[in-house]
Amino acid sequence: MSVLIKDFKDGDEFVGYYLIKEIEAKQTNNSIPKDFLDIVLADSSGNISAKYWEASKTDIETFFPMCLVKVQGLVQVYREKLQVKVIRIRKTTEQDAVSITDFIRSAPVDANELIPIIEQAIDSLSHNDIKSLVTFCFEKVKDKMQSAPAAKSHHHAYFAGLAYHIVRMLEIGEFICRQRPFLNSDLIKAGIILHDIAKPVEMISEYGMVLDYSNQGKLVGHISMAANWITEAAIILGIDLESNVIMALQHLILSHHNLGEWGSPVQPQLPEAVALHYIDAMDAKLQMVEDMLQTTAESEEWTPVIRGLENKAIYRLKL
Amino acid sequence: MSVLIKDFKDGDEFVGYYLIKEIEAKQTNNSIPKDFLDIVLADSSGNISAKYWEASKTDIETFFPMCLVKVQGLVQVYREKLQVKVIRIRKTTEQDAVSITDFIRSAPVDANELIPIIEQAIDSLSHNDIKSLVTFCFEKVKDKMQSAPAAKSHHHAYFAGLAYHIVRMLEIGEFICRQRPFLNSDLIKAGIILHDIAKPVEMISEYGMVLDYSNQGKLVGHISMAANWITEAAIILGIDLESNVIMALQHLILSHHNLGEWGSPVQPQLPEAVALHYIDAMDAKLQMVEDMLQTTAESEEWTPVIRGLENKAIYRLKL
Amino acid sequence: MSVLIKDFKDGDEFVGYYLIKEIEAKQTNNSIPKDFLDIVLADSSGNISAKYWEASKTDIETFFPMCLVKVQGLVQVYREKLQVKVIRIRKTTEQDAVSITDFIRSAPVDANELIPIIEQAIDSLSHNDIKSLVTFCFEKVKDKMQSAPAAKSHHHAYFAGLAYHIVRMLEIGEFICRQRPFLNSDLIKAGIILHDIAKPVEMISEYGMVLDYSNQGKLVGHISMAANWITEAAIILGIDLESNVIMALQHLILSHHNLGEWGSPVQPQLPEAVALHYIDAMDAKLQMVEDMLQTTAESEEWTPVIRGLENKAIYRLKL
Amino acid sequence: MSVLIKDFKDGDEFVGYYLIKEIEAKQTNNSIPKDFLDIVLADSSGNISAKYWEASKTDIETFFPMCLVKVQGLVQVYREKLQVKVIRIRKTTEQDAVSITDFIRSAPVDANELIPIIEQAIDSLSHNDIKSLVTFCFEKVKDKMQSAPAAKSHHHAYFAGLAYHIVRMLEIGEFICRQRPFLNSDLIKAGIILHDIAKPVEMISEYGMVLDYSNQGKLVGHISMAANWITEAAIILGIDLESNVIMALQHLILSHHNLGEWGSPVQPQLPEAVALHYIDAMDAKLQMVEDMLQTTAESEEWTPVIRGLENKAIYRLKL
Amino acid sequence: MSVLIKDFKDGDEFVGYYLIKEIEAKQTNNSIPKDFLDIVLADSSGNISAKYWEASKTDIETFFPMCLVKVQGLVQVYREKLQVKVIRIRKTTEQDAVSITDFIRSAPVDANELIPIIEQAIDSLSHNDIKSLVTFCFEKVKDKMQSAPAAKSHHHAYFAGLAYHIVRMLEIGEFICRQRPFLNSDLIKAGIILHDIAKPVEMISEYGMVLDYSNQGKLVGHISMAANWITEAAIILGIDLESNVIMALQHLILSHHNLGEWGSPVQPQLPEAVALHYIDAMDAKLQMVEDMLQTTAESEEWTPVIRGLENKAIYRLKL
Amino acid sequence: MSVLIKDFKDGDEFVGYYLIKEIEAKQTNNSIPKDFLDIVLADSSGNISAKYWEASKTDIETFFPMCLVKVQGLVQVYREKLQVKVIRIRKTTEQDAVSITDFIRSAPVDANELIPIIEQAIDSLSHNDIKSLVTFCFEKVKDKMQSAPAAKSHHHAYFAGLAYHIVRMLEIGEFICRQRPFLNSDLIKAGIILHDIAKPVEMISEYGMVLDYSNQGKLVGHISMAANWITEAAIILGIDLESNVIMALQHLILSHHNLGEWGSPVQPQLPEAVALHYIDAMDAKLQMVEDMLQTTAESEEWTPVIRGLENKAIYRLKL
């Protein structure tokens, strides 16, 4: 069993399996420059910088991002931070019996549990057209939903982060519909499942890490893409494009960012659209806080600043 | 039994008890001007404009705002709106056995039920200093809390509106603490009860209607007033002013408006402060929607615009 | 032949045909109030306030907005403005041989000339899919395009204003494609025709005057409606929803307001999208100026302020 | 003939003439540091980083920015980018028969063609005072206009960029005056020529590259400088300072940035001032797009982000 | 001696001299309308609304704004405010021996004292060019400076308000130069005298009341007008337009509003320009407070809101 | 006597005493990396970068920030900047007879003179409760006030900077109270002394350099902390918490940043609060200018940009 990165201490010598998250061939700044590999090693507990000073030309062509490696190394302090000096490194083979999914950050609940919860929520929709429309859109991205993050770095930026975000929002949505029965729970559920449904196509991700935005993601954006999917679904399912149900679902999707400057071309004008925006905000903001606290060393009183929270850090208060 | 104002129809003749919400002596614009009374009658279902053309000098000195009257009148349409032509009017006496509280807008739950719920929440606080501090502040305004609105017109602007807002937020708070156990439920509950605790002193209200802001309300504001109360409570209760518990409660109060331009001198930097802001926002915004739908005639598809919702109206969608 | 409203002078007595643009039954503020009609008369040259003091109950039920009337009246100055005292008034009959279209503000070019120009532009598109998609969307609103204004009051707010706006933009577009050949002229033309194509459905108008926004107009908005139409057209025409041509047309429509706070969910990222925004802005702003100068009396040096031009007035400079 | 920088490929060995755009003497980070020269080589097709590891003390004192050199070098990939390893380098002499103007970025039209076009436009002004005033201001900077860029980096940031910007705006202006005859074409032309006329004095540039802003440029700014020139011209030409023509030209100059936060102390209030702002914006924005596409490798789908276009990149769409 | 308007009480009958500040002929809203005069009477202590119900056609043609009248009237309460019922009214003649200047609001110091103080400050300038330039500009408006207000309503909006503003700023300027000797006192004094020097030409005023902005005031604005005057002065006085002294004075004028959105095309970049902005702000804001307290009845705890102070009212605190 | 850092010239060899402001152990980027010390040396005249290439392991453990050292060094130019090559370095001992206070930036007036001036101002307060309250708060931080800076880097960021800021503001306050006698000078003086009184607790500083914000500083902020101190003082001194004097002092403190986005939960609504904001702004802004000019080499025409002045640089104008 490999030592977790977050448990590394100065002076440790170790052998274990890790993921290469980033790798770059660099040259020392000598008059006769020498190649070395500047690496970021990762596992599910965090990242660490590593240097492989003895890298050969072959090494440089062997290792690349997202590849699993077995490393023998030494943990040292460099400029007040821990860093690994790589002594030996090789790619893993089938015999090592390790899987990339063991080395990445994931939602706290397994994707295989999240998807069925969303499907149950769809199943529970009582309005037939809403159920068909949500099903249509969900099927489009069901496979990607297994792994898609909810954002590049803002919140839920990990494996199955989007599915986890939806499931948690469904919990809040269920509560709020019980508390305020004037809300239509079909619209709340549908809005929650649909609001970010096009994100897996807006962003190109691998193992929960966003590599880039797709061209369509940049030029159309996930909000308008999802609105288009409703149109597409309606035509294919034979639902009247002028019906209130189409108008309502489109409105929920389009308005969920609340303001034009946050990307919504219209502002919430249905009770459920107002609710959807705040359900989304509450889940996203609190998850940012929770994630940041978890990835900040216990010994630190303050987290790094969080862009989505007015660039403020969070304090780990002891009462 | 008096006919409810929201049930008035053109041509109705009626006799019943109503509240004078506003009254002004005016003069007709004739060359020989004549006095009349321009009145706003109210009951728990709404308001209506009324004219008393035959007002005598004595009448002008008899009637004033917040006084209960028995009115014989005629409902007419004037400029596309209903209006009452007063035929006879007199102040009520004890014999009429009517009470002002029957004629005002109130929270949907009785104040006598709301206060004990808040007190139970205080009772359930497990941290002794927090419990003492919250109790101290709550006792300061307990009497006013029976009737205080949460705002002048923004949201929960009615009898016991503030207590109702707190109780509903406690429900959300309880849910969110169950969903996210890393939140300290004592801080969440305390934050909810304290966040607007100084509003009954910031605003001068009668029967749930804000008449004005107090001088202290304008010059110090309810946020800083509540922060001062924590200081006062700590000194009187002998709690260390430099303790984390004092810092935390002050932070929750000071940061709950989230941004400087919304009145918070610091931004949320505790997990519970982030949660508090969104619990407050969700309850306030959804209550605005619910209240506006209820006070808009069923026959109207759209409510009037709501200032607190980006000046948007809400649509009464039929699926 | 009726005297044009803009030629009315104090003391004029006249008989002529006019349009009732607004009408309201009011009562004089006497102790014994008396009914009268407060009217706004209009013709193609402008509006004027009119009072009919002698209105009978029948009159009140006879006249309504958008009805044509024959009026005998007297022009008077009241509070520094001209006003008509109505002496006699009756609805027009077929014998009067007047048509409502003679009494409304229209684009300077006849709708029957504008539509064919747009159709020629569509015809000239060289990319077949673009041509089919634009045709599909244009056919949806071709009838309404005969009369639809481009806005409620902002710019081109008159009969056939939208078609006129499109035609003028096509002229600018043609010039700019000649000047900058790197621009794709198919995309420029398509973007111009499509950018406001859903406005006739977003707004409910009559004779070029916007009466209200439709529910869909409020909840979805013309930008997203037009994007949806592209999706609809693609499906019905069998064009690949993932093709670049669909992405490009959607992008042009979605981004043409340039900024999120102006209603665009994405910002221009194609050269033609950048061009489209400025072609639209230039035509709209200069038309505001031209319209305002035309409807301001020649004797006035300054127009009223124009909301769309930073609330500035325009000066009629003599060199 | 030298190979163009944009045609360099990994492994190329070359000999050719280039411009030193930037040069800095650095030291290797060894315990016994060694001098080397860190250079940016340029030609009209682009820039490339170059290192001269064998630089002697004499070399360090020989080469400086804006000097032309003959280089023997080797093209290598370093950190995913091409870079030149300099083998031999010397300054050019008269015998090399190369001129700096062959190595800099220039407007696509020759300065010697641009200036006469502007002069013809001045010639075509029909209002005598306007013609004299424009001539006076133009003569002030005519020499600098041969080379001046329109901005430091924002748009038209190259040799004769300003003259090119003016000429292209004159084309748009001519079109828009034909399309909208109510515009005074003398004011449009004068506004175009004058709007940035003080930029060659506001910014200190060499070969179309801005080195810095002048003190006057920082403390007064090109907008107010140009307004002052009108005053100066009027006095020297004997034109009444209180005349409408002076007021109009000053207004066009002062208002052409449209908003206070963009540097205009007054907002457009003449039809021609509104037009001028949009002619300027359209030309500047589209040139940014065109320039950025041209300097981005054909193989790249997306340009770098453009600050003047809401920090958006432009997509090279294939239909 | 006339009773001061601020001393009027309900029921008073009076005879005295007053100024007609506003007057409008209106008609009663009867079926047979009757003319009356709706008047605002003023004296140096304040304004009051007055009605002259018995106005004849001759009266309507006799009285106009800014005319002095002798009035016999009755003070009444109407809609919670005092109002005068005019019994008799006539224009004053020479025999009445009253002067309009006795009836208007003025700076607390006499204009005849203020102008010499400014002239002394000019005299005390040690730099000859600065002295000549300031003198030139001051002479342009010296006559108007006797009466000109500093603004329409914002601050110092009364007879000689501008001169008073300058004099008070000179006092602050003198203090700050003593406190911080690194400031150049010539530039501070010159900046103070010049910063608003073009306001008497930007605004058309009579007896300290702004009637309108001039065309030049709207199209060029007082900031750029003053900058132009410096250019004009330099040419006429033979001072080098490129000299630092011209650049400095222009900079002080142009930057004194501090931000682009407040009308300054450049921001302060000389120490004296930073100082000038804060001297101006401090004097203007405190004068707003002082003026508003003086024109608010002593019995009122709070003044009306002040637009220039974030729309806040000022509280009359008793310690 | 040591040579002042600001007097260092290229090629100088020197021996002298300096303060280590920052120090970091780094490694050369060789294949066999070597330790060296990267140091920032400081004295009261400024800072300079220094490298100690021959640092031993012992050296790395010996030197730390804020320690005084004797250095033998050589001044060299590296990348256009002066830099020190350390030849020998040792910590100072008692025999060296140097004190850290000789090596830090300080207010231009000695702290031992500043504190008595503030105490005299407190003594001169005529209102007893104000005097007691101010005394209470001042005593809380009197010791820290000897050295506390007024800000981290914004303004007065040096030893005794806060005391100096207060003393200078008292001078302005005294002047403005003389100029405008309607201002209550007790409130002005109290407001000046109290407005930043909690800064020494909000920020953790050493020798006038801010190391960090305290937790309370981040979570409560100096504005609310000072308001709380007033509450605390009132309780301990037995002054009525509801009295006007408490309300006034709290208001002055809370509103002195003027706007919500600048950290004030309420806006100025007392004349003295308006004055306090502008006294504070004027002193802070002019001090930024003065400090920046002093720490910029005389040979530089322009200072670096100043964040607190709209990111503008200041020009050293010669007249």
**Order of strands in the sheet with most strands of chain A:** 1-2-3-5-4
Look at the structure and give the mean pLDDT of chain A. 92
Q: Assembly type of the shown chains?
A: homohexamer
What is the structural class of chain A? alpha+beta
Largest sheet of chain A: 5 strands, mixed, barrel
The greatest interface here is: A-B, 44 and 44 residues
Number of strands of chain A: 7
Helix fraction of chain A, binned, reads 40-55%
SSE succession of chain A: EEEHEEHHHHHEEHHHH
Number of domains of chain A: 2
The number of helical elements of chain A comes to 10
Proportion of residues in β-strands of chain A? 15-25%
Distance between the termini of chain A: 37 Å
Poorly predicted regions of chain A are: none
Global morphology of chain A = elongated
Work out the radius of gyration of chain A. Answer: 23 Å
Task: Outline the secondary-structure elements.
The structure is a homohexamer of 319-residue chains.
Chain A: E1 13-27, E2 35-43, E3 46-52, H1 57-62, E4 67-78, E5 81-91, H2 111-123, H3 128-145, H4 161-179, H5 185-194, H6 199-202, E6 203-206, E7 209-213, H7 215-219, H8 221-237, H9 244-255, H10 271-294
Parallel strand pairs in A: 3-5
Antiparallel strand pairs in A: 1-2, 1-4, 2-3, 4-5, 6-7
Helix pairs in contact in A: 2-3, 2-4, 3-5, 3-8, 4-5, 4-10, 5-9, 5-10, 8-9, 9-10
Domain HD/PDEase (chains A, B, C, D, E, F): 158-294
Organism (chains A, B, C, D, E, F): Paenibacillus sabinae T27
Protein name (chains A, B, C, D, E, F): Metal dependent phosphohydrolase
